[in-house]
Amino acid sequence: MTKSRLEAFSDGVIAIIITIMVLELKVPHEASWHGLVPLAPVFLRYLFSFIFLGIYWSNHHHLLQAVKHVDGRVLWANLHLLFWLSLVPFVTGWMGENKFAALPVALYGVVLLFASIAYFILAKVLVSLHGRDSVIGIALGRDFKGKVSSAIYLTAIPLAFVRPWIACAMYVLVTLMWLVPDRRIEKTIVE
Amino acid sequence: MTKSRLEAFSDGVIAIIITIMVLELKVPHEASWHGLVPLAPVFLRYLFSFIFLGIYWSNHHHLLQAVKHVDGRVLWANLHLLFWLSLVPFVTGWMGENKFAALPVALYGVVLLFASIAYFILAKVLVSLHGRDSVIGIALGRDFKGKVSSAIYLTAIPLAFVRPWIACAMYVLVTLMWLVPDRRIEKTIVE
Amino acid sequence: MTKSRLEAFSDGVIAIIITIMVLELKVPHEASWHGLVPLAPVFLRYLFSFIFLGIYWSNHHHLLQAVKHVDGRVLWANLHLLFWLSLVPFVTGWMGENKFAALPVALYGVVLLFASIAYFILAKVLVSLHGRDSVIGIALGRDFKGKVSSAIYLTAIPLAFVRPWIACAMYVLVTLMWLVPDRRIEKTIVE
Amino acid sequence: MTKSRLEAFSDGVIAIIITIMVLELKVPHEASWHGLVPLAPVFLRYLFSFIFLGIYWSNHHHLLQAVKHVDGRVLWANLHLLFWLSLVPFVTGWMGENKFAALPVALYGVVLLFASIAYFILAKVLVSLHGRDSVIGIALGRDFKGKVSSAIYLTAIPLAFVRPWIACAMYVLVTLMWLVPDRRIEKTIVE
Hints:
Four copies of one chain form a homotetramer.
Chain A: H1 4-20, H2 33-36, H3 40-65, H4 72-86, H5 88-97, H6 102-130, H7 135-140, H8 144-159, H9 164-179, H10 183-190
Helix pairs in contact in A: 1-3, 1-4, 3-5, 4-6, 5-6, 6-8, 6-9, 8-9
């Protein structure tokens, strides 16, 4: 099976998730700064979701570059990833609404953790389909970055109940780590 | 006519249907477990619709793999399928909202029945276009799985008025039957 | 310029317009037939919009089949068509909400008229780009069907203020006329 | 990396943004002209957003025509552009809601300014990737149009607080300037 429909469907779902939140920016009735103030947290929430989902889209794009074909398992590993990504606007919103209280920060971490695990599974399934000696097998190697991300999220979730800001700092750290997309794949393809 | 636009349009429609329900997960104002409780049924409903539509997308993807070209009849058979699929979030929601009462469970079965019939018609039209000796003709054969699904749904709908849980168990049975996508097609293409 | 992006963008927009209305099917709280009754007009409205937009998508698909390349004018003729199509759910809804009163029936006709004119313009621009001797030029010829449609709509709109049901019958007539997609194009391509 | 997914994702996001506003055209209960009057500003707002986003889509389409491949930087420059475009319906709405008061007109200009800068950055990144002697390098040249647009927006924003209509006139001017898509690219490709 070719990968084109998997890409097209993922693009469609991520395009919807990434733009859904802009619907919550309700036009205020007042033409003053005062009217904009209550929208500030909604805007920030939209901005953060957008960046986070942009990172996943960009990495998904890189990952699929090295892929030659897909099978039924890949379709489901990908749907699994899309499911967790679709919850990102909700948990970002809950966290923002409650000024970074413990439980929302922890739940945010849980969704991020499962998204990172789903991405990890997708990568594993793709490597097992193409073989360890394929472009994608070599490029991902032992997938250090993927494992470290999941480990950081796992540590951050309980810490959210002690000091929410420490958990948030750890989320930001993982985000920065992935902002640079997977150069490993670009490099391996070129070689 | 090539099949690429049919696939792209179906991907677009299914991507929208599959993500629409996440919009109903309204951010709660409380930062406690208490705030999340009323969202649990909405979340479960989203999860089940997502899985159900994922199954259809995955099978649709497999079905179209074996297709070489399409015509006007295929376009309409496909639109017919998409119409029934677009009603899945609504009937899933009504069933969940009413704790699996008889009528919603039966209506859920009706939509599932029509979706399965629409899928069956689409497969028939594709086979008649490509011939019984084509890849798709051989792969689908007498389409045992399709006929059994429709038969189970047809039995489950009246049973919903006697014991809703029996109907639900039958829906789950069909779902499991289709979770494994059509290996017949993958096999026939390879041979 | 290739036509692939024009097709992909149109597919995306039509996929959204065609599924948007399903969002208005709000899950009722009652698990009885009583709870479904107020949804009947919304459902019918959704069904009619779906069929109408399905017809346009199917014909758009046929039209673009015969196209080799596009230019800036084609992009805008296409956007113009999409604009009028995006208003179809709204006017269908207003007409249904008011039990086919004169003004909503007339406005429905106006949107249908402009959509048919926009489709006509798109076809003209495509023919002028490819030449009268191209596949698309021969297939469309003097575009009898397009001109008749616009003429019927133009007659139906004033009649809506006299007898709304006559206007509705005329809309149904045009719809039936287009339900069979443009065999002229399929034929000309084969020859 | 090929550009096809970048195009598909952008098409998806722009298709959603361009059609989102039609959801705000709520069906009125009255079947009279009176019922339509409050919808007039919503309709105009939708019309203007549609045209504005259509211009960007059309130019984006032209720009990407001349592109051979993309990299991680291009993905992010493109996401950056999509982010600002997604805010267009909101600022158009706020401006319309408040009858072109100073602050909304200025904010509208700010979003337009950032969108034009994002488009400029995307073009720059694409030129630097393909080289000054590539089709896209020659076609864009010193990008006079891009620089002038940003300069006009920059002048219009403070003027919005003096005379909002002057700022609006300047926005219309830039819009007209871009309504004709980039013939430079079409020409350079042909040569």
